[in-house]
Write a structure and sequence with these properties.
By secondary structure, the chain is an alpha+beta fold. A three-stranded mixed β-sheet has the order 3-7-6, sandwiched between helices. A hairpin with a 4-residue loop joins strand 6 and strand 7.
C-alpha cells in the first residue's frame, strides 16, 4: 500500500510521551500506540448524545457510541483535536470543553491515549454522513440500560475509558 500523502498520526509511548509519527494506515495495520479524543456531549437537562457509527468506519464499524472523537494528527493539541472532531462528527461547535483527563486503552484493534472531555450543547446535532448513521439523546439511566442490552452493541473503548465518568452521571 502506498502511504505517501496519508494523514500522519502522532505516536506515543506507554507513559504518554511523544514517540514519532506514522501514516494512519500503518497505525491501524500495526496497532501502534497513538492518541485520540473522546468527548461526552450532554444537553442542558443532562441527557447524553448516543449515536451509531457507520459500517464504513475503520474500527468498530456499525457499533453504538456515546462520545464523539477521533485520532489526533501528528503534533495536534488534544483540545484542538477534540474541537475539530466534535465539529466534524456531530456538527457541534463553539462550545467550551471540560477536560476529564487521559486514559490508556488497548485491545487487539486499537491502542491509544484517550484525551477525555465533556461538553454541554443546546443546539441541533448534524451528523457527518461518513461517520454517523443514527443518533439520539438519552438520559444516563437509559444509556446504562442500553449498555447492558446485548441487542445494543457499543464500542468497547468508550465503555472502558468513559465508564467511570458515566457512573457519576
Amino acid at each position: 500500500m502506498d502511504e505517501v500523502g496519508q494523514e500522519q498520526v502522532g505516536l506515543f509511548d506507554v507513559e504518554g510521551r511523544p514517540a514519532g509519527t506514522a501514516p494512519r494506515a500503518r497505525v491501524r495495520r500495526e496497532n501502534l500506540l497513538h492518541a485520540a479524543t473522546a468527548v461526552l456531549v450532554r444537553d442542558g437537562t443532562g441527557r447524553v448524545y448516543v449515536h451509531r457509527r457507520t459500517t464504513t468506519k475503520d474500527v468498530y464499524p456499525g457499533l453504538h457510541d456515546y462520545v464523539a472523537g477521533g485520532v489526533l494528527q501528528a503534533g495536534e493539541d488534544p483540545t484542538e483535536g477534540a474541537v475539530r472532531e466534535l465539529e466534524e462528527e456531530l456538527g457541534v461547535s463553539g462550545v467550551p470543553l471540560s477536560p476529564l483527563g487521559a486514559s490508556l486503552y488497548e485491545d487487539e484493534h486499537t491502542r491509544y491515549w484517550a484525551h477525555r472531555f465533556e461538553a454541554v450543547w443546546h443546539g441541533p446535532v448534524r451528523w457527518q454522513p461518513s461517520e454517523v448513521d443514527w443518533g439520539t439523546w438519552m438520559t444516563p439511566d437509559e444509556l446504562r440500560a442500553h449498555l447492558a442490552d446485548p441487542a445494543w452493541p457499543f464500542v468497547p473503548d468508550t465503555r472502558a475509558v468513559m465508564g467511570p465518568v458515566l457512573r457519576t452521571l
